[in-house]
Amino acid sequence: MLKKLAGLLFYGRFARAFSVLGYRQAEKDFEPLESDFTNQIWLVTGASGGIGKAIALEANARGATVWAVARSETKLNEAKALATDPETFETQVCDLSSLNEIRALVDQWPEGDDNRLSVLVNNVGMLPHHYQETVEGFETALATNLLGPVLLTKTLTEQRRLRQDAVIINVSSGGMYGTPLRLLPMTEPSIDEYDGVSLYAQHKRAMVAWTHHWNKAHLRGPSMYVMHPGWVDTQGVQTSLPTFQKTLKGILRTPSQGADTVVWLADKRPSPPEAGIWLDRQNQPEHVFQLTRHSRNSVDELIDYLDTTLAPWL
Fold first, then answer.
1. pLDDT at 129 (0 to 100)
2. pLDDT of 3
3. Of 23, 177, 200, 225, which one is the catalytic site residue?
4. CA neighbor of 169 nearest in space, from 304, 58, 311
5. What CA–CA distance (Å, rounded) separates 244 from 66?
6. 173, 122 in Cβ contact below 8 A?
7. Before 312, cis peptide (omega within 30)?
8. Could you tell me which residues come within 8 angstroms of residue 240 by beta carbon, excluding any fewer than 6 positions away?
9. 59 CB contacts (<8 Å, ≥6 apart)?
10. Which residues does the chain have with pLDDT short of 50?
11. Which fold has domain 36-313?
C-alpha cells in the first residue's frame, strides 16, 4: 500500500512537467535550432529505436556523421534507411551490456584526428523485471545503464578517440528523482525480490552523480552533461512499463521531443553546471524530495566502485 501511495505521489508531482504538456509549455520559449553539425562525428548508443534513433537521425539531418550503436542489426539498418544521408550514417552492432564488446568496439575504432568524436551520447538503457546476468557476471541492467556507459566514455577518452572540445551527453531518467544514491542495493540486487523499476532509478541517479564528478575531474574537457527526456512513448516503455504506457499514452512525448535537449546541448554547449539535470533546455534541480538528498554513500564511494570494477577493462 505504501509503495502504491508513493507511486501516486511521484507521478502526480511530475505528470505535467514530464509529459508532452510540459514540453509544449517549455517549447513556447525555445529559439529555433539552426544547428550545423557538418564535419562532426557522433556516437549514439541505443540508436536502433526510440530516443536514441531520434537523436541519431536528427544529428545526421544536420550534417553529422553518425555511428549508431545497438545490438540489433535489423533495427539499425531500418534506422539507416530513414537517414537524411545514409552514406554518413554508420551502424555498429554491439551488445552494450557486455564490457568485453564495448572494449572491442573502442579498440576497433579507426585512428587519426579525422575520426575523433565530437559528440558521445550515452543513451542506451534497459528496465527488466527479472534478474539477469551478463557473461562477465554483472547484473544486466547495471551493466547496461551504468557500467557500460562509464567504460565506453573512459576508454574513448583515454585512447584519445574524443576531441578535446567534445561533449558527452548522458541520458538519465526522471525516475532518479525517487531515490538517493544507493551503492549496495544497486550493485548487489536481490535475485528473489528483484525490483527493476527501483534499480533503474538508482542507476540513473548514479549517472547524475558521475556526470558532476567527471566535470570536476576534467576541467579541460571533454565536458559532460546529464539530461532526461521526460516521459516518452517508445517501444522500450511499452515493453518495460506497459501499464504506465497504456494509462498515460495520450500525454507521452514523442521520441523527437525527448531528443530535443540532447541536440540543443550538443549545439549550444553551455558551461556545465555543478549540479542539476537538464530538461527541456533548462538545468533543473536534481532533488525534489528531501529523502533523496541524504545517502549512506558518497560520490567518492561510487567513483571508487566504478574504477575498481572496470579496472580489468581499462
1. 94
2. 57
3. 200
4. 58
5. 32
6. no
7. no
8. 126, 127, 128, 129, 196
9. 37, 40, 42, 44, 66, 119, 263, 266
10. 1-2, 5
11. Rossmann fold (3.40.50)
Return the C-alpha cell found at 68: 549508431
Predicted confidence at residue 6, as pLDDT, reads: 57
* 3-class DSSP string for the chain: CHHHHHHHHHHHHHHHHHCHHHHHHHHCCCCCCCCCCCCCEEEEECCCCHHHHHHHHHHHHCCCEEEEEECCHHHHHHHHHCCCCHHHEEEEECCCCCHHHHHHHHHCCCCCHHHCEEEEEECCCCCCCCCCECCCCCEHHHHHHHHHHHHHHHHHHHCCCEEEEEEEEEECCHHHHHCCCCHHHHHCCCCCCCCHHHHHHHHHHHHHHHHHHHHHHCCCCCEEEEECCCCECCHHHHHHCHHHHHHHHHHCECHHHHHHHHHHHHHHCCCCCCCCEEECCEEECCCCCHHHHCCCCCHHHHHHHHHHHHHHHC
* Known catalytic membership, residue 11: no
Q: What is the pTM of this model?
A: 0.96
pLDDT at 116: 97
Grid cell listed for 114: 579525422
